[in-house]
Amino acid sequence: MSKRDIANLRRWHVEAAQRARRAGYDIVYVYAGHDMTMLQHFMKPQYNQRGDEYGGSLENRVRLTREILTEVREAVGHECAVAFRFSTDELLGEDGLQAESEGRDIVAMLAELPDLWDVNISGWENDSATARFEPNEGYQEAYTAFVKSLTSKPVVGVGRFTSADAMVSQVRRGLLDLIGAARPSIADPFLPRKIDEDRFDEIRECIGCNICVAADNIVAPIRCTQNPTQGEEWKQGWHPETIEAAASDDPVLVIGGGPAGLEAALQLANRGYAVTLAEAGETLGGRVSRESELPGLASYARVRDYRENLLRQKANVDIYLGNRLSADDVVELGIPQVLVATGARWRRDGVGRTHYFAIDGVGQVEALTPDDVMDGAEVSGRVLVYDDDHYLMGSCIAELCRQRGHEVCLLTPASIVAAWTDYTLEQEKVQARMLDLGVEIVVSQEIDSLRPGEAEIVNVYHEAYRQTLAFDTLVLITSRLPQDELYQALLAQEERFDTLRAIGDCHAPGTVAAAVYDGHSAARHLGSGEDTYAPLFNRELPALD
Amino acid sequence: MSKRDIANLRRWHVEAAQRARRAGYDIVYVYAGHDMTMLQHFMKPQYNQRGDEYGGSLENRVRLTREILTEVREAVGHECAVAFRFSTDELLGEDGLQAESEGRDIVAMLAELPDLWDVNISGWENDSATARFEPNEGYQEAYTAFVKSLTSKPVVGVGRFTSADAMVSQVRRGLLDLIGAARPSIADPFLPRKIDEDRFDEIRECIGCNICVAADNIVAPIRCTQNPTQGEEWKQGWHPETIEAAASDDPVLVIGGGPAGLEAALQLANRGYAVTLAEAGETLGGRVSRESELPGLASYARVRDYRENLLRQKANVDIYLGNRLSADDVVELGIPQVLVATGARWRRDGVGRTHYFAIDGVGQVEALTPDDVMDGAEVSGRVLVYDDDHYLMGSCIAELCRQRGHEVCLLTPASIVAAWTDYTLEQEKVQARMLDLGVEIVVSQEIDSLRPGEAEIVNVYHEAYRQTLAFDTLVLITSRLPQDELYQALLAQEERFDTLRAIGDCHAPGTVAAAVYDGHSAARHLGSGEDTYAPLFNRELPALD
Predict the structure, then answer these.
(1) What is the pTM of this model?
(2) Centroid of chain to Cα A7
(3) What value of ipTM does the predicted structure carry?
(4) Between chain B's N and C termini, which has fewer beta carbons within 10 Å?
């Protein structure tokens, strides 16, 4: 950057702040965080190797930030506050900014310049850590607690706060003045009000899965595992807390108490329908109950707990556990509106992202699925985990097997472990954990054929590159199929029902977020007469000059 | 998909076609190509494993396409044509559709249903193959030539056609009726007119680099290596063929005849300026002349040839080769408007995507850069190519060294070879070629330190995983630095000039496309008084209901 570039950057900041002020904003941010802004880059000797007054000493590296903070402060006047977002630490040790050294020094140098300090850790994967890697609220405390001791200005911080106790503790102990909570507010935009009104058990707690972040990374509409209305408030008119009253007095039968069934039952109950929820197992939750037992996924149980707790309080909901319905049972019940949420099961034949047909020889080996492992199937000796799913399950199963003392080889056609978790900011942490645990990692190879005790694998780029991997136990994690036998049997007599719809994984296996969304959507549309498979929604219309 | 889903899909196709017709379109497409449409997916047994009348036999797998073609044909009336895009082959052998079997059968089955056959190969990486992997025009001929023999309807096809001879040959030999050319039209929207008017040497030929495709894949505004006006026609009012007349009679000096300098000189000449182009070397082209000598990159020479040819015909352009100017020389010339396009050189210290500082021990080993190799430096024995750049250079240097008989190890911190070429649809082909050539590939490892003859490398995910790689020759391909000594010396006496600007790699090392764009932009803005570093441009403004 030339001096002219720097002058331009300063001017653009001032002009942007003035525009924001004219547009009516009360707070304007100056930003040095997430390893993504020029101001933070100027602070870091890793990036800033200038020889002039903007490089070298810390004073010089902070000069641009000081100038912009001062100029923006002057530009917006005193009816508008200037907040400064600053990452005190990058969790990179000596390769990055550290709270115990320059991170602290920078806060001291700029202490009184902003009106509000907004402090966190960097990069985004550390700031928005998932529950798998940061299970506790307030996990940034060790890096930001010092800030209040160096400034008289108010301080706000984050840490996936979802409970009033944890928030109050931060304030009472003098660590923060204001609680920031982005993901928890995505999961429940009414979080502050529910705390204010002592409605604690109505809080939809963020589970820290970063599906919201993934939507950003794949340039798709935002989704939230806990809050299916997220992003649909304007597009479909879905309010996070209110829902249209029932269209009729018809009772509704929901079959299956997993994520889709629970959400559908809850929202139908909120609409005033008389809801019968039939669950084949002895507990509610379906896949989230099972998966929350896996290493790192405990928070998924919140998807069940929030809904089960509210459903148990509803007078218009009957829950039947241990209640596996046949098609004849359903017909006999005579309920005209039926949602089938019987979930999905992992395939046993190896069909997944890479294999369109059953893997050659799969019938000759005893392959386990994740369902088998979660059901307690015996795992012995060296375990070969074949991950052609690429999201959470492969590394969770590998971790579980290592915890139990098995030698584990994690094989995937992707070039990295758990490739899809790149979108949830977890990939590097997952692969590091696998290496920490001593899991053998084999990437960019697919299974070509199976024989008892060994897999012939082939390089995904070149079929001449082949090798053999031995195993005692093989776990195939490839894709899932709907458990829709009941739905298909009912579909054959569709005329008996006013509504008959498969929802969630039973309709199309996907993320928990997708199942919750589908259950919610089915409940919203029930009785509306709309084609719920092709909902119209509001769109921004471009106007060209 | 249920039968209702299928009925919906058919209805949506019809409704969409009717909307298109109402909006005034003359041709509506039905699409079964690029492995991305439902119709193609229904055709493929790899995806379609249905047991009903839409699965099983080829007749059944084509049923949905036949229905939709028929229904869309009926829906749009006879003032609108229905074209059918169909990929006859997927280049997957028995794992995909093949032109010699079902691809051909499908054309025969649907022969007279569409008004126009638009045929190609699939997926996108085969259809839009780069020049590196498909150097010749008409490379799809072997897969689409049969189509005309099976239908009386006109047939259009593609194959990166840029020359009239190749196009005419297709028509004369009865292979195609119409020539499709998307990328060549991006490079030159006036391609048809220039052929029509016998202005062949004014055609800006597509170089087949797929930078246009990369923009799509990274969700960025489209760019073209050859045509810098692409995507700027409305945003900035840049016409591909016309440009504003000179703002003054001042002469202009362009220093450096690489991509940025050539484009700037050409457009300044088009504006009517008296242009002096000074090039230190004995030939024009700069980096594209050097890089076009590498395996697979020959087409980059077109960036030079198109511009040099036109510049040589201009009366208002003086080209000086072998003319290395010092700052004193430039001052002495007394030309008030100066653009400095002296390019960039590869770093020798290992600083790149992964290393922010010089690699430990780099001073103790004799490391080559790509510039050294292109300049003919001696390469001996086992070559370790360290690619921390991740685009073209690493695999091209590796290929060159293998061609010369060296043992080659290609080491990269990325998890795949030439990771950035994923965006240009080349990555799988690059990695396959490396394996074909017997290059040893080491991924997800960075160099931790260097000693004579060996590199200690460390896993990018976990510092405990280390190993040593031996080499006789080390090539470091990490990042580039501007060759801007002349520019900096002139900047110290900036007051002598009306315009003094570094352009292209000398301003900011990047792609050839970025350099051409920067040279074009500088020529457009020269004398305008606008701040060319922050151009305003037209944007779509959303209007909310």
Answers:
(1) 0.95
(2) 40
(3) 0.95
(4) C
